[in-house]
């Protein structure tokens, strides 16, 4: 029963997201969608190869709205609908929302509970079943205007949570990893507007969604360096591998971001 309900929620949310994205309220530019489609439709998935997508997180609306760019038939198959880690304190705040997001394939993630919590375990399981898991590497919304700068004046994406590294270290078959970059979503739900407008997206924005080429499998294999989860390594070694793997994904998303938004990552809008 709950499977049927879940499938219904997932496909309706997909359709609503699509209706919103293509309603004309906002302009939309999608780049490289074939990168995700190729990963999702790869024949290797039949042999259990999972898919990981990872991107910046600039608005609470990012998910599920971004998946509106996928062709409709994708909303009706478990292989082509994503599981996503979602923050408990934002998405699971009452029983109704909790039910809705759980049915919508959101894994309730608790800030501060670390990388060995249930949501991360389930994400690993899904990948090991050949599923698709989406992650917001930063683990929370960071608007581009808050990104830190380095000495050269380049903006950086805040660091990614180590759970990502754990997920890749424990995947039985290395998943395909597609980096993504979002822009404009932060302007859909600006904070500080009066009720009830704060509950509705603001029209007139310009949104872009970019899907990059898969992260290099070799680079990931090298960082994993024959790591086996067999308890033979020191805790320091394990956490260093985890950091290294996580930083490959961070670099992948950040460099895709530079190619779309420039060295400031969209963090500063120049005043005329
Ligand atoms: C982590 O990456 C650094 C830099 O590439 C490398 O020197 C180090 O050996 C890696 N650590 C592990 C445990 O693989």
TrEMBL record:
Highest rank taxon of the organism: Eukaryota
Main localization of the protein described in the UniProt heading: mitochondrion
CDD domains with a match to the protein in the record: LPLAT_AGPAT-like
Any one GO CC term of the record: mitochondrial outer membrane
Keywords annotated in UniProt: Acyltransferase, Lipid metabolism, Membrane, Mitochondrion, Mitochondrion inner membrane, Mitochondrion outer membrane, Transferase
The keyword Membrane belongs to this UniProt entry's keyword annotation: yes
Subcellular compartments: Mitochondrion inner membrane; Mitochondrion outer membrane
Gene Ontology terms, MF aspect: 1-acylglycerophosphocholine O-acyltransferase activity
InterPro entries: Plipid/glycerol_acylTrfase, Tafazzin
A Pfam entry, by short name: Acyltransferase
Full protein name: Tafazzin family protein
Organism: Hypholoma sublateritium (strain FD-334 SS-4)
